[in-house]
Here is the input.
Amino acid sequence: MRFSFILFTLSILVLTILFKVNADEYDDITKQLNDLKHSLESSQKATATNEKELVKLNTQFNDIKNKVAYLEGEIVKKEREVKEGEKALVYQKKLLDQRAISYYKNLNKSSMGVMEILVSEDLTQALQNFFYQKTLQDEDRRTITKIVLYIKNLEGKKTSLEIETNRLTIIKQEVDKQSKFLSGEVSKSKTYESKLQQQIAQLSARQKEILAQKLSSLGIPQSAYTTKGGCVDDREVDPGFSPRIAFFTFGVPNRVGLNQYGAKGRAEAGQNAEQILKSYYNAEYTAGYSTGGNIHVVGTNEYGQSFDDNWNIEEYLKHLYEMPTNWASEALKAQAIAARSYALAYTNNGQNSICPSQQCQVVKREENSDSWKNAVNDTAGIVMTNGGQPIKAWFSSTHGGYVFSSGDIGWSGTAWTKNARDTTGDVSNFSDLLSNAFDKASPWFYCDWGSRAEYNKTAWLKSDEVADIVNVLLLAKMDSSTQNHLSQIDKPNPDGTDTWDKDRVKSELRSRGKTPFNSISDISIDWDRGTGKTTSVNLSGDGGSVNFSGSEFKNFFNLRAPASIQIVGPLFNVEKK
Here is the structure.
């Protein structure tokens, strides 16, 4: 590629001036974002190299620039040496002239013959003069030689300096040119990434919209009080075919705060309201909280009752319907405190209004039963607080053995919610979770959501139906532009286009060099025992073996699965018969 050639050329140039560029090794990242690869391929060829590679190249260029700067410093030193040498040269030339004259004088003096020495009246003095002149002659010769070598060395330095300066100028020009080009490529890459992120966000939003519509049709219970909606444990129900596969979810989606069936299990195990609440919130159990303002209730509840009423907080709570009132009193007290805290936080201590439906908290015109009102009275003035203020104490019917923080499910992060296992002991497998979870008695604890009347009102799937879901996921990952064709077959396409059936999906996979599945023979689930999330789904069949993350499998399962069949939470398992 062009960048590699440029770096190689620059390295050779730098090597010629006694300095080697040790360029960093870098990964050739060419993988496009899978879910947008083909739809953007034609318009993004010029920016196929992604930003990460460009950053690495920029690092290499910066390394070269740093070494060029080092060379410039060395050249400056040499220039100083040459200038100092030239100053010294003036003196050395004068010295050379003097030494040359002295040398020739001494040469003549030392050239007297042996007979002149022998006939000399003072032989000793004559010999001393001879050797003295000889010494002066040798010293002059050595000095002349040093000066000549000095001049030669200085001329060599000047020549080398001129060559290095010229070569360095070429390198600086080339580095500057390529750095400007690189900056432009980085800018293009960022623009490209921005477009990808925007399209991914749009796709994600559309998927969430479709999934929300499907989930809303299931009537998932928000509180333990309701008898509407729900799921059925189909493990012992025969749909009329075999082999069969079903995906079972633990709990309902919003696992934040108080687990109502968990509170029931904890109360039955002997825990009091304070112990129960501290199991679900990182908050203070505060008694005697001042609740002087009224709660303004505005709106319509699920029972068709309209409200525009002002009640004090304790009166408001007596109209609340969120938990079966025949449960243990400590569970009812825990619910009353959570509801009181939520209402005060939601309304900012009565300054704002609250709705009477499950979007907020369900209230009715009539007061609840005596057991519930006793729980309200027994906990009057008690709230869960954080920093001295009531917390928005969320709750839901069934957590499925795990508590999530608000940030874990995509809400704003809060200091008073937590992620924790909600069991009586350790959990090493799904059997332990089914046996030890405090909310195991909930009808929504472990079940497959949705059904088909033609298969005995169950959510069991055939092997080829699961294979189709796998093929859809494989195709969507290979080519994101196909996704609006991959919704469930038995419903109108939510994007207003044609929906590809299982045979068309197989054909599309083959055209892209991928062997599709006709049947699935084995499935296994990996999950995080600490946080309560399915981490991967591993499948094998006649198309080979594949694995997907838990979240991506769930999303495409919910988009493609027939009828109302859904996986509704982050922790799910597979059942096969």
User: Anything to note?
Assistant: The chain is about 45% helix and 10% strand. The first strand starts at residue 245 and ends at 250. Residues 1-46 have pLDDT under 50 and may be disordered.
